[in-house]
Each structure stands twice: as structure tokens, then as C-alpha cells.
Amino acid sequence: MIKNKALHFGLTLSILSGSVMAFGFGDFAKNLQKQAEQMQQQMGQQMQQPPGQQSGNGGQKSIFEITAEVDKETRLGPVGKLSKGFEAMSATFGAFPQKISADDPRSIYVGQILRTLALAGRMPYTYQGWVPVLVEGEPNAFASPGGIVQVQSQIFEAVETEDELAAVLAHEMAHVELDATIYDFKAKISARGFDQITQGSDNPNAMGVAQASYNVETARGFSTRSEFEADERAVAILHKAGYNPFALCRFLERFTGEKAVSNKGKANRWRRIQDALGKGANESGVGMKYPSDRATLCLDSVENGLKITTGDPGDSPKRTARFNKIVWNQ
Amino acid sequence: MKIPHAIPIALLGCVIAAPSFGALAKNDRPGRNQNWMVACQKLPVHSSDNGFSKTVAILPYKSVVTIKDLRGKYDLPDSQNPDADKSPAEQNDFLSNSVAKDHYAWAQITGPSGENGYVPISCLVNDTLSKGPYEDPSQIMDQRVTLAGNFKPTVSSRGFSKKERGDRVAMRGMSPSDPVQECSDEMLNSESKTTVSSRGFSKREKGDRVAMRGLGSSSSDGICIKEDYQGLKNYIAGVPLVTDSYKHDYDFRKEGGLGEFK
Questions:
Q1: What is the pLDDT of residues A235-293, one digit of tens each?
Q2: Tell me, what's the pLDDT at A163?
Q3: CA dist., res. B38 & res. B132, Å (int)
Q4: How far, CA to CA in Å, does B13 sit from each of A89, A190, A272, B80?
Q5: Greater model confidence, B252 or B141
Q6: Which of A144, A162, A284, B152 is least enclosed by beta carbons within 10 angstroms?
Q7: Per-residue pLDDT band at B86 (split at 50, 70, 90)
Q8: Nearest CA to CA, how far is A174 from chain B (Å)?
């Protein structure tokens, strides 16, 4: 019952806070914060940590202290992002015992593609440049803040051309550009902070605040919407770099088993985006977090977003030959 | 439900959400005639607001540049745009106009030795950011490696329900600072089995394998997480640092008809 109440509160608050957020963050935000502080006082003990877990002023950690901590931890420049990215990537790196040397031709090749894509993006350079990390493993790729990109070796089997390989890397790069991991990190530490506040309490109001905060940040982190946005951004990066943006859609068709439907028009595209939004913040898990017709959305991003309506021209034979030579020694 | 509580909580929600826009906050956004600092190890200065334009200089870390103009305007994606779900009428509401809407990828700058050109804003920080946490390069890896000490393999988890925790493990093993638990022997054994690359299976099989792992995501897909700071540090140390990728990869782009050769 309480959980249902909290969820209902969460939903309401997401909408309400979304409206309030649009008001801006200058003097208005300061006034808003004052009002919120007054209201927090009115809410008294409901929003405070339980005894034994208190800290700071008089042993009480306020909602604003937690918010300030979250802010401090996540407002990062290139060095901070690399630091966080290094921390995050150490886990995925550690999970795969067999590494592929940095001077392996495939590692060098991935680095060249990454840097070419980066020059086309909004983040051409990171603190120490885009770093390819190759390991033996099932087909997958990860990117972390600061530009460390881990590629698992069987990705070379899953893609058929350099353009498709670039498409996978562009998707990962888009997540870095869009700060998905930072937002996801923020969602987690927000949630943890509010877990502390609500610990031992059945107060649905406090739980609602936690839920609202978590929803906002998670939607910006890794959600159905952000996955779609990463695909959308990826096709733009590919196009600007000179790669075939259709390569991503083609690749998605192959691995989802879905046939992309061409040129369904803006309204239909919007409906699909709305569908994706509906699944938004609270969805997670592989398979759940992606839009259901991801290949079609990709095609719409190319046709309606990039205004390329001539159909897939196919990938450059020169680049495909290069891919086969470097990866398969053919 | 007590309605009076809904409003204060909405306001609190706003305060919580406000730092999400840290990157958009007024003092975190570059403006003309401001001095900003280079926060990348080496920053190429380009001849135009395009990564495929020639590089005219390389600025070292901590160089102070003066911003003359901003270029490369772009829109935020829907998930980061508070106006995204609003009707056009709502978007035109005067109150909405105070939200930072203009975002730029490039800055036209003058460098400390009179260098003129364009640099990506992502490599610049202002006074606030330069004093933020982790902005000391020495902390990037060494501190983490020291702290790691005798690490134990772990599985990520967070703090909600067990069901939800399972979802998060499947999806977000990458995020830093998750509370952790040790991996089971079963997980460790399964993860230690790495497969050797072969090109022998069918496209259908490839598709299935890819779909199972969530390719193209940033997910760890339930893998057993074993932080290896020292190993990653050593690996990265072996990757050549490419400062000027415009020059370094010129032939690669030319051969592939990419960038300025497309």
C-alpha cells in the first residue's frame, strides 16, 4: 500500500517537478529553494535521517546537503570525467581476463575509427584522447566518461564492414557526449542519499521525493529514451564523419531481427518516440531499455533527421576492403 | 493522499533536479570575453569550428584562453530538455525562457601566446569546474589504484528491491560507486571462460549472440564485475597518446574517403 502510494507520488512529482524545472535556475531557483527550505522545516522530522545515521549540523543531514553532495560529485570537467570513467571501466575491464594488446592491428584500427568519429562530434578530445581497450569476449562495446571505449573481440564477427563497426562505436561515443553514465551515476547517488533519509520510515512523501529525483536522473542516464537518443546522435556523427549512417540501421535490423520500415513520416516518428518515452525512466535491463522498433527509429533518424531519403547506398568498398584486411587478414 | 504535501514535495523535487542542469547553469557556461582554462592534456587549436579543419597550434593543460565567440550551436536531446514534453504554447511561456537553451560545441579563442583559432568547449573549464572534485590529473588513476588495494570481484547492486537490483545489475554495471557484493564461484568460473574469435557461425547465430548481450549498449549485462584498476592503468599506459588526431589520422581518413575527404 505504501509502495503504491509512493509510486503514485513519484509519478505525480515527476510531472510536477518537470513543470517546475522549466522555470529556470537563476534568481527564481534561489527563491524556490528558499520556499522549499521553509517547507522542509515544516515537514520536520519526516525528511530527516533516523537517529544513529545522522551527520552534519546537529547530527542531521538535510535534503539540501545531500543535493549539494550529488552536485559536487557530478559537476565534472575532462579530468573528473576521466577519473569517473576509469573507475567505471575498471569493472568491465576486469571481467574479461584475456586482453588484446594495444599494438594489435585491430586495436590500432579501432583507435583510428574512434578518433575520426570524435572529430565529427562535439567532443573531439578528452583529457588524454579517446582510448580503445580491446578484450577477448562476446560481442559488445562499452564507453565510459573520459573516452575509454572497451570493445569485445567478437564484435568483429558481428559487423560486416568498417561502417558497421563505426556505427557501434558511434553509438557508444554518443552516450559519452550525452553524459549518460554521469547522469546514471547521479541517479544512483541521489537514490542512495534518499535511501538514507527514508530508511526506517514509511513516509510516502520522502519516498516520493526519492522516486522523483531518481526518475529524472535515470531518464537522462540509461533509459529507453536515452538509447534512442544515442542512436539518433550516432547517425549524425557517422554522417558528418563520412560513414554511411544507414550502416547502424542495417546492423540493428540484423541483431534485432526487425525489418526497418522506411519513411513513415514525422507523425509516426513522434508516436514512436512517445512510445519510447512511456517506457522511460523506470525501465531497465537489457532488452527492456531499447525502443521496440529500434531499427525503424534509426531509419527515421536518417530519413527525417538527416534528410537523406535516397535509401541505403551501401558501404564504401574501399573501407570494407580495409576492414577485411585488418581484421581478417584477407 | 494529503494534497498539501504534494506541492512542497514538487518544489523539493525541483531543487533536487536543479543540479542536473549543472552543466547548463549560468556560471558553468562559457561566454564571450571570458577567460577559461584548458583541461585536456594537449588541446589542438583548429582553423575553423570543425574537427576536420587544420590544426594551427597545440595548447598545454592549464593554458588560459579568452573566448571571442561561440560556434556550433546544438539542441539538447529530449531527455535533457525540460521543454521536450511541452506543447508549443507552453514552450513559449515566458517563464520557460529563463532555461538555458543555447548550447555550443566550439569556442573561437585567443591563446596565451596570441594563438587564434577554434577549440572544443568540452576541453575548457571555468574557475568553478577547475576547483571541482577530481580535477587534479594525478588523481585520475593513481589514487584509484592505491585505494583498490586487495580488491575482490564484485557484483554491482544498489539499494531498492531485489527485483530491481537484478535489473540494475543487468543494465548498469558500469556506473561507478555502486555498493558491491562478492561474485559467486559460479559467476567467476563462467566469466573466466573466454571464447576465441572465429568467423564460422551463421548470421542468424550472430544475431542471437549479439541480442543476448545487448550490443551497442553501455551495459555490463549481468557480468561479474571484477575491478582491475592496475590492469586498466597498465593497459592504457600502453596505448599511444595521440594529441593531434587531425594530423595523426590524415592518411587513414584520406584512404577511406572520410572527414574532409568524404
A1: 999 999 999 999 999 999 998 888 888 766 554 555 555 555 544 444 443 344 566 67
A2: 98
A3: 14
A4: 31, 11, 28, 16
A5: B252
A6: B152
A7: low
A8: 11
- For chain A, positions 159-188, list CB contacts with chain B under 8 A: 162, 168, 171-172, 175, 178-181, 183-186, 188
* Residue that the C-alpha cell 544475431 belongs to: B207
Q: How far is the C-alpha of B114 from the C-alpha of B237, rounded, in Å?
A: 33
Indicate the angle between helix axes A224-241 and A162-177, nearest 10 degrees. Answer: 120
Is the pLDDT confidence value at A303 over 50?
A: yes
Is there a domain that residue B151 lies in?
no
Closest CB to A26: pick one of B26, B135, B242.
Answer: B26
A151: phi then psi, degrees, rounded to nearest 5: -120, 130
Chain B hits for A112, CB-CB cut-off 8 Å, are 249, 252
Q: Which structural domain, as residue segments, surrounds residue B47?
A: 26-135
Number of domains in chain B: 1
Q: What is the pLDDT of residues B110-137, one digit of tens each?
A: 999 999 999 999 999 988 777 776 677 7
Assess if residue B117 is contained within a domain: yes
pLDDT band at A220 (very low <50, low <70, confident <90, very high): low
Q: Which of B12, B44, B227 comes nearest A40 by C-beta?
A: B12
Residues of A in contact with B227 (CB under 8 A): 90-91, 94
Determine, for residues A24 and B249 on separate chains, whether the beta-carbon distance falls below 8 Å: no
The CA-to-CA distance between both ends of chain B, in Å, stands at: 61
Q: Which residues of B touch A82 (CB under 8 A)?
A: 140
Interface of A with B in 188-217 (CB under 8 A): 188-192, 195, 205, 208-209, 212-213, 216-217
Distance CA B258, CA B66 (A): 32
Name the residue type at position B246.
Answer: Y
Predicted local confidence at residue A53, as pLDDT: 42
Residue A153, SS3 per DSSP: coil
**Most A-contacting residue of B28, B143, B145, B210 (CB-CB within 10 A), to test interface:** B210
Query: Could you tell me the three cell numbers for B117?
Result: 583559432
**Residue with cell string 536515452:** A226
Least Cα distance to A237 among A320, A144, A114 occurs for: A114
Tell me the count of A-B CB pairs closer than 8 A.
Answer: 475
Specify the CATH number for the domain of residue B78: 2.30.30.40
- Asked if A316 is an interface residue toward chain B (Cβ–Cβ < 8 A), one would say yes
- Answer yes or no: is B164 within a domain: no
Residues on chain B touching A137 (C-beta within 8 angstroms): 194-195
In a domain, B14, yes or no: no
Q: What is the pLDDT of residue B143?
A: 58
pLDDT at B101: 62
Chain A residues whose CB is inside 8 A of the B77 CB are 178, 226, 229, 232-233
Confidence label for A218 from pLDDT (cuts 50, 70 and 90): low
Rounded average pLDDT over B75-90: 61
Nearest CA of chain B to the CA of A282: how many Å?
10
